[in-house]
Specification:
This is Peptidoglycan glycosyltransferase RodA. InterPro entries: FtsW/RodA, RodA/MrdB. It is found in: Cell inner membrane; Membrane. Keywords: Cell cycle, Cell division, Cell inner membrane, Cell membrane, Cell shape, Cell wall biogenesis/degradation, Glycosyltransferase, Membrane, Peptidoglycan synthesis, Transferase, Transmembrane, Transmembrane helix. The protein is mainly alpha-helical. The protein has one domain. The chain is about 70% helix and about 5% strand. The protein contains 16 helices and three strands. The protein has helices at about 5-15, 30-50, 55-75, 85-105, 125-140, 150-165, 170-185, 190-210, 215-230, 235-255, 260-270, 280-295, 305-310, 320-350, 355-380, 400-425; strands at about 105-110, 110-115, 120.
């Protein structure tokens, strides 16, 4: 039985809101079948987007997936508890590799995110995702949340890699770090209200740019929430309002000095791509045209005109979903969304049935990573979110990201095997 009441509480909430999750309990083949199918389909789509040039991305994608499947099989045999002694070295290596990117990294498309090792480009920020999930799980498994000060350890652990990734610049991955941290904190027992107060900082930064007068209402409201839900009510409420005011004051400076020009353009053009149809808004407009032209059944594989003429730059990476929409239509996109939903539900089910709090937190971190990336990438592609550079798991081309995804599945399968054995013995 799990030792921590907080994780047990999260699992009870999970059962309440997803009552049919037990039906997925014995279907481990879902962990194998869905990612393999997504990789196969995306390989065809990558070949379609690259068919006018002599480019080998599609079979590199499949070969990488083959190595990934072997890695998944090997990791599924290893109990996660054996990784505890490696967490500190992994964290040091992760920080060192992110620092190395800053000084000797290779650049592409205006960002310096890769290390070239033996002729192979690795993206340390992708590896940092799974490393941080493991370390946060070890920190939070025994954590009790009686005071917000207790958040300093997980925040400190994630702060350094977050800053190193943000300045690459890689806004998408830094957003993934934040989303995973919040969900893991809640799963480990952090009160829901604390999460709302943390997220309120994001709302404050948005209001400071688009509706500054509303801050006179919003900041006192956040202070009232802090007064109602946190200890040392008066002091914490004052500190919370002070922090919100600081965020509001600093945001305009960060907007001008902390973001690159193209990042500001992406956020602005998300609201109105037509302002620059041949520049920053080009990706969004062409992506929407491509998805719309697919209709219900699509144009057929290798038949998409926008894909064929390469109207969307780098479509085989972040915008692979637009190729899917054009060539397989609404039906194909819905089936892929259902596949992702099924995979994520299975991962959540594994987290619920995990043998230990550490294992449960690792799996919930992996599930939240996949869920956030899928939602943001699809929303970005169809114009419901700004372009952030977040890849679609198992489908976007990217060898490091694909291997990290399969590594994550190996950890999930390892926990599933132990959890199932434990439940049967119990």
């Amino acid at each position: 039985m799990l030792a921590s009441f907080s994780v047990m509480r999260s699992k009870k909430l999970y059962r309440r809101f997803i009552p049919f999750s037990g039906k997925f309990k014995e279907f481990e083949f879902i962990i194998w079948l869905i990612p393999s199918t997504l990789v196969f389909i995306s390989g065809l789509l990558i070949a379609s987007t690259q068919r006018q040039v002599d480019y080998a991305s599609w079979y590199q994608h499949w070969i990488t997936a083959g190595f990934g499947l072997v890695l998944t099989l090997l990791l599924a045999q290893v109990p996660l508890e054996r990784l505890r002694s490696l967490l500190l070295p992994l964290y040091i290596i992760t920080i060192s590799s992110l620092l190395a990117v800053r000084f000797i990294g290779t650049s592409a498309l205006g960002a310096q995110r890769w290390l070239s090792i033996g002729g192979i480009n690795l993206q340390p920020s992708e590896i940092a995702k799974i490393t941080l999930i493991l370390i946060l799980a070890a920190l939070l498994e025994r954590q009790k949340f009686n005071n917000p000060i207790q958040l300093w350890r997980p925040l400190l652990v994630i702060l350094i890699p977050w800053l190193l990734v943000f300045i690459q610049p890689d806004l998408g991955t830094s957003l993934v770090f934040g989303a995973v941290l919040l969900i893991m904190l809640y799963w480990s027992g952090m009160p829901f209200e604390w999460g709302l107060i943390v997220l309120s900082g994001l709302v404050t930064s948005i209001f400071s740019g688009v509706l500054p007068w509303f801050l006179f209402v919003w900041i006192p409201f956040v202070g009232f929430m802090a007064y109602r839900s946190l200890p040392n009510k008066k002091l914490v409420a004052i500190l919370t309002m002070g922090m919100q005011s600081l965020i509001a004051a600093v945001t305009p400076w960060l907007w001008m000095n902390g973001l690159k020009d193209y990042q500001r353009d992406r956020l602005i053009l998300f609201l109105d791509p037509g302002k620059d149809p041949l520049g920053g808004g080009y990706h969004l407009i062409q992506s929407n045209i491509g998805i719309g032209s697919g209709g219900f059944f699509g144009t057929g594989l290798f038949q998409g005109q926008l894909t064929k003429l390469r109207f969307i730059p780098e479509q085989h990476t972040d915008f692979i979903f637009s190729a899917l929409g054009e060539e397989t239509g609404f039906l194909g996109t819905i089936l892929v969304v259902i596949a992702f939903l099924t995979l994520i539900l299975r991962i959540l089910n594994i987290a619920r049935d995990a043998h230990t709090d550490f294992e449960s937190l690792v799996v919930i971190g992996i599930g939240s990573m996949f869920m956030f990336q899928v939602i943001v990438n699809i929303f970005m592609t169809i114009g419901l979110g700004p372009i952030t550079g977040i890849p679609l798991p198992f489908m976007s081309y990217g060898r490091t990201a694909l291997l990290v995804n399969f590594t994550s599945l190996g950890f999930c399968l390892s926990v599933a095997r132990r959890g199932r054995s434990f439940n049967k013995n119990w």
